[in-house]
Each structure stands twice: as C-alpha cells, then as structure tokens.
Amino acid sequence: MTISRLGCAVFSAVALAAVPLAHAADYPQKPVTLVVPQPPGGAADAVARPFAQALAARLGQPVVVENRAGANGNIAAAYVAQRPADGYTIFYGSISTLAVNPHLYKSPGFDPFKDFQPITLTNQTPNVLVVGAQTPYKSVADVVKAAKAEPGQLAFGSAGNGNTMHLTGLQFEASTGTKLVHVPYKGGPAALTDVMGGQIPMMFHNLSAVLPVAQAGKVRILAVADEKRSPLAPDVPTMAEAGAPGTVQIAWSGMLVRSGTPAPIVDRLHKEMVAILATPEFRKPQEAQGSEILSSTPQEFEARLKADSQRMAEVIKAGNVHID
Fold first, then answer.
1. Distance linking the first and last C-alpha atoms of the chain
2. Which whole number is the average pLDDT over 292-318?
3. CATH topology of 32-124+251-319 equal to that of 126-242?
4. How many C-beta neighbours within 10 Å does residue 314 have?
5. For residue 118, is the peptide bond before it cis, meaning its omega torsion is within 30 degrees of 0?
6. pLDDT digits (tens, 9 = 90+) for 189-247
7. 15 against 254, higher pLDDT
8. Res 293: pLDDT
9. Which CATH number fits domain 32-124+251-319: 3.30.70.1270, 1.20.58.220, 3.40.190.150, 3.30.450.20?
10. CB contact set of 212 (below 8 Å; sequence gap of 6+)
11. Strands 219-224 and 116-132, how do they pair?
C-alpha cells in the first residue's frame, strides 16, 4: 500500500470512529423510550412516570414510558437487549429481572451482564413479613412457634414462584428452621388482599406496598428484611433483631441501556439521572410511599448486580426453585 493510500485508510478509519461520538455529542435528537417491565398503573409506574417527565425536561426531548409486561420482566428485558446501543431505549430494571430470573429460566432471552450497561440505581424498598390483623401473630417468635408446632401447615403468599417475595420466605425458613407452605399468586396485590381478608395468614411483601394498609390497621408488619430498620417504620425490628438472621431481601431498581452505548451518552444520562434523584420534587413523593431513593455510579450498580446475582443463585439452588 502506498503512503497516500495508507493515509487515506487511516483517515477513513478515524472518520468512521468519530461518527458515533459526533452523534453522542448531539444526543438526544429524537424521543427516548423508557421500557418498564410491569403493567401500567403498578408500583414500577409510580416511579418510572415521574422520572420520565423529569428526564424529558432535562434532555429536551420527550421520554415515553412503554410498558412491556410478562414472564416476570423477561419480555421487556429481552426486547431492550435487541435494541440499538444508541441510548434511545432505557430499561427500568430490577433485582427480580436482572439478578433472579437468569437463575430461574433456562432461556430468559437476555444476559444481564453482556446485554446491559448500568447507569444508576434509582430506588429500593425492603421486603417485610406481614400478617393479617385477625391473626394471633404479634411477633416473628409467634410465627416461628406456630410453624414449628405444625411443620408444613402455615402458609405464606407471594407474587408468584421465584420472585423476591418467595425467596424471602425461603430465607426465612432457612434462618428459623421452619417449614412453611408457599402459596403463589398472580401478583403481590392479590396475595395482600387475601392476607387482609384472612384467606392466608401472612406473606412477604415490599414495605412500600404494605405500609398504607398497615397504617390503616388492616395488617401488621412484624419484621423488615433489611440490615437496618426503616425510617418509615422505626418501631418494626429487622429480621435479625426478631430472630431470623440472614433474612435480607431488598428490592432495588435502576436504569440501564444496551451494552455498547457510547460512553458520552452513558455519561450524559448518568449526569441527568443523578440530578433528578437528588431533587426534593422527585424524592419526597417516592419516600412518602415507602421507597428509599438511591443513586450510584455505573460501576457501583454493576457491583451490586453481581453480588445480588450470586446471592440469589445460592438461595434458588438451596430452595430447589424452578420455573422452566
């Protein structure tokens, strides 16, 4: 190759490499889609929609929320995993979809580490042990005593097989030496309704979902599956304090894009998202509903995902939980 041809080749390569960076500098030039893996009107929407509005204001382009429910979040995750790595499709992922599902499904349709670039964690809420107001259980010790008196008879509900509520129950059994009966429902609200109605005595559920009905006296929260007490329920002990050490289950969520998205776009999204998460306008309504607002670097988010993925794999294996 002549020097002139070599120079042209080098120039062309540099020019091509500069194209994504040029587009990144102009990002965004069109509406952005925020994919939520739950139906409209649910707990995820309560965070995603105000977040999308705030992000749209900061980006100068509409941010459209697109609900793609099904398969415990796999449908939405697999969809985003096939989208271009250009920052125009954002995924509102959770511990259930990203850290649990890959260990439950043989073919979830995505790889949480190969297909996604974390941006920031956004919020979390611990799971809690909640019992119906009509039950005689006033403490974790009461539940454990009843469960040991009749092994395999005391039932607990959850949002379905393999979700974090179910896994909290497995952790509880292991830490207390009890044997419970798991009753899977099609969603947490249905299970909570039956707890309030007395059809089942208890369940493990998100604090943010349980707090309003607990404040209304319809259920009792016996313990928080966290390493610290919740400021929203300061009188409720942690599982460790209540006699169930090792029962820790915190449902977190965060924003991700496709792996390979140009670094300037990831940096821009991170900057804007962290700024939103710091504003009282976004934080206060979420905190009032029981969510703890977070923010993180992409590296911190990835580290937490890896740690929780390993932890959930161990719980699932020990509990012999299978979906397909």
1. 57
2. 95
3. yes
4. 10
5. no
6. 899 999 999 999 999 999 988 998 999 999 999 999 999 999 889 999 999 999 999 99
7. 254
8. 95
9. 3.40.190.150
10. none
11. antiparallel
**Mean pLDDT, all residues of the chain:** 91
The one-letter code for the residue type at 290 is: G
- The Cα 217–Cα 159 span in angstroms is 22
DSSP string, 101-114: HHHH-S--S--TTT
Which position has the token pair 């005595």? 201
Instruction: Quote the CA–CA distance of 147 and 51 in Å, as a whole number.
Output: 42
User: Which tokens hold the place of 163?
Assistant: 């979700």
- Contact (CB, 8 A) for 276 and 54: yes
The residue behind tokens 């070599």 is 6
d(CA 190, CA 182): 14
* Beta-sheet strands, E only, within the chain: 32-36, 63-67, 89-94, 116-132, 155-158, 181-184, 202-206, 219-224, 250-258, 292-293
Contact between 123 and 294 (Cβ < 8 Å): yes
Hunting for tokens 């776009």 — which residue is that? Answer: 265
Rounded to the nearest 10°, the torsion over CA 85, 88, 89, 93 is 90
| CATH of the domain spanning 126-242 | 3.40.190.10
- Mean pLDDT across the stretch 3-21? 51
- The two three-digit tokens of residue 150, written as one number: 């009749």
Q: pLDDT band at residue 19, thresholds of 50, 70 and 90? A: very low
pLDDT tens column, 27-61: 999 999 999 998 888 778 889 999 999 999 999 99
